[in-house]
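ESCALATION

Customer reports they have been waiting on this structure for their group meeting. Please prioritize. Original submission:
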Amino acid sequence: MVDDSSTAYKVKGCEILTKFLKTAPTQMLERTGLGEVFQNALMPYLLYLPTLTPEKESLQLLSAVYPTLIALTNARFAEEKDLASRTKAFDQLFRYGVFKGYTHAGENVRIAEFLVYRTTDLVKEMGIASLKHLKVREVEGSLSKWSLKFALSTYFLSSRGYWQLLSQPRILDCYKRHCKHSMLLSQMAGPELRSTEAKS
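Update from on-call: job pushed to the front of the queue and completed.
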């Protein structure tokens, strides 16, 4: 179903695979090579984007494939010794999913908004290891025209645990220089961000 030409069947295939991954033994996925097979089958779906793919179909497929790839990565690399491989897999999702997706379809408002949400999902999965993707050099370069700045501001307000990201000098500097609404966000954020800004 994952390899079917129909978007509806691709979506259904992703949903079935996600359910399967919840019960599949980690050792089996790697021992049989199925984990890599699934990964290679799903990754191209990240670039089913407008204008080659209609916006509605693109969003349907992307909404299914990102959770499946995240579940696949967590299932394949569930043990502590697999941390490096897990991080590498999420790095690929950032580079070939979010970043390349914006390069190809960033002018589409709904796609750009969707990618911001997926950025937050990946940051939650990677934790502090995601900082390399959010550093100032990248935001000022390939992502300077994108609303990733909102992922460093408005959306992070919903998760108090991520104030550690804004405590990083580079991230805070990017936040202050790229968020036009930083004064409002500072008021919304409360003492966490104001105390951080005061120290910088």
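Sent to customer with the following note: The chain has two domains: 1-134, 146-200.
Escalation resolved.
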